[in-house]
Amino acid sequence: MLWVNRIVGVALILVCAALWQISADYPEMARLFPRVIFAIIVFFSALMVGRTFLPAAAAGGSGEGGTSASVMVRPVLAFVATSLALAVSTYVGFFLAMVVLAAALVPILGVRQRGWYAFATVVLLVVVYVVFVIVLNVPLTLRPPVL
Amino acid sequence: MDTLLSVVVNAFTPVHLGMVLAGVVIGLIIGSMPGLSSNLGIALMLPLTFGMDPVSALILLVSLYTAAIYGGSFSAILLHTPGTSASAATAIDGFALTRKGEFNKAIRISTFASVFGGLLSAIALLAIAPPLSLLSLKFGPAEYFWLAVFGISVIGTLASGNMIKGLVSGAVGVAISTVGLDLDSGYPRFAFGFYDLQGGIGFVPAVIGLFSLSQALLMCEKPHNTIQEADPTGGGKWRLLPTWAEFKFIHPTLWRSSIIGIVIGILPGAGGDIGSWTAYNEAKRFAKNDPDFGKGSIRGVAASESANNATTGGAIIPLLTLGIPGSPSAAILLGALVLHGMQPGRTLFTEHAHFTYTVCVGFLIANLVMGFVGMAMCRYMGVVARLPNTILIIAVIVLSIVGSYSLGNNIYDVYTMMAFGILGYLMRKSGFSAAPMVLGMILGPLAEQGFRQAVQLADGPVLLHMVANPISWVLVALIVLSIGSAAYLEFSRSKLTDVMAER
């Protein structure tokens, strides 16, 4: 957690410095409050980085889930698959894209009960169609726009 | 008297009772699934409430909130896996009772205690909130600024395990709230030429990303459930209410734990988990003559469950009166309130009194309905709690996308949700809490407005003007106290770690 705190702290200080500079063109009252907040973020970020050089107090606030970097492979792959499915949905329609996403998650998550998973996905999409498309009139595309 | 009658009649209309029932059922299902929390449930349901009138929307959300907290006890008792963090203490005695073949007894006590705590907190809400809201009348721009800072500092120090990380998270949330057109000059701030960013960063997609998508990504780390199971069949006789002997045994615990829950709920940032553990520890202190405590005592279940449900009403008190939520879930409820055009404060109890009291009565009814529905559904909740994580993951991802898209049929909201989803996941991995960031996003505009007005009104040094009023002094003292006490606790903890490392 030590290096994470240092990287996050330094990154926040740099981002705040950049945003401070960007806000120089804004009207005086429009930039005043954001600059106060940037100063506060820089102060706490510096404290966070400084604390990592003290004994024991160092890390603090352990994160959730597994600690090794390898546990993040599945979440990152799932996020990438979701992003791709969203990009594809413009061309193939929302519901087909979600079916593709569900299929892509099978190897990523190592789904065991595939029959139940497929059944649950179909039920979920039917519920989404009924609630959002029919009841709430959300224009989710059922099929590719070209068809 | 006429207002009271019309509020009660309004709360009992079929539409509002339907909202109570829907909120309770959805809340019970979400709460009973390990990994899914009341935050996630409220965040996912928010977009659905946009087409509703404010009363129905808020009744649905508060019903879901209280039922999700209670629903967490099912998986805690049945699977030794708390559905929500607020039910972690329940798992100790609840699961031990199930192992002894007393599943029905554990569920009966948990239900009765949850309803008891919830009802007491609803009564406290109706009794305390109106007079407390008078305080908001004395607030000027500077006081609103300090109030917002107080809310963020308390939730930052209490809701996350690390004070500095909590405060950084809250400050970043406030910074995010400054994106978009400046309300006075109309100048686009931090939009970087993107038209969509000029409208600001949407609160609802951000909340869905931070609480729902991040949870789905976290569940991807362990997509296969590993839960302890006990056989609930033959778990004793089903009864709706505790026996007289059981009631006599637990009633001092119920009163004590509910009061603890209400008080902790009122404290900004301290949610159901802190309430239930505090009440559980207090019950343990008073149960020296109970050899079963910690090994399957109904007192343990009653303490934890009455306290965690009592925090729900307690958390709504500062939310309605001062705009400071008492828990992360209440922070999302505050967002819902603002999105439906309501501003917390005295006007909620004067101009919009009908709305506010109907929601409060709806909350009271939800706590009653939750008991009946919970006892009726208890035998089937095991099936829900055992749903594979893989199914929950795809369901949460799809609902997060659809929910954020349905806000304005705009793909920009989905991208916002995705960005906050991965941000929320990385924050949770590195020990940053999302709750202070959400509160920062909600209270940011209030803080900025108060700050700017105070700057414009000041005819000398701005800081002196901002602490000129006694209320400002009290708020500044509270901010210093909350940060100082959190810093002292962390310092003591780190010194203890040093000593242990040396040994």
From TrEMBL, chain A:
Keywords assigned: Membrane, Transmembrane, Transmembrane helix
Cleaved signal peptide residues: none
Superkingdom assignment: Bacteria
Domain DUF1468: 7-140
Transmembrane segments: 6-24, 36-56, 76-109, 116-138
InterPro entries per the UniProt record, alphabetical: DUF1468
Name under which the protein is recorded: Tripartite tricarboxylate transporter TctB family protein
Organism: Rhodoplanes tepidamans (Rhodoplanes cryptolactis)
Organism placement in taxonomy: Bacteria, Pseudomonadati, Pseudomonadota, Alphaproteobacteria, Hyphomicrobiales
From TrEMBL, chain B:
Cell division as UniProt keyword: no
Keywords: Membrane, Transmembrane, Transmembrane helix
InterPro entries: DUF112_TM
Limits of the DUF112 domain: 17-439
Superkingdom, natural source: Bacteria
Protein name from the UniProt record: Tripartite tricarboxylate transporter permease
A Pfam family annotated for this UniProt entry: TctA
Organism: Rhodoplanes tepidamans (Rhodoplanes cryptolactis)
Transmembrane segments: 12-30, 109-132, 144-160, 167-187, 199-218, 319-342, 354-375, 387-405, 434-451, 471-491
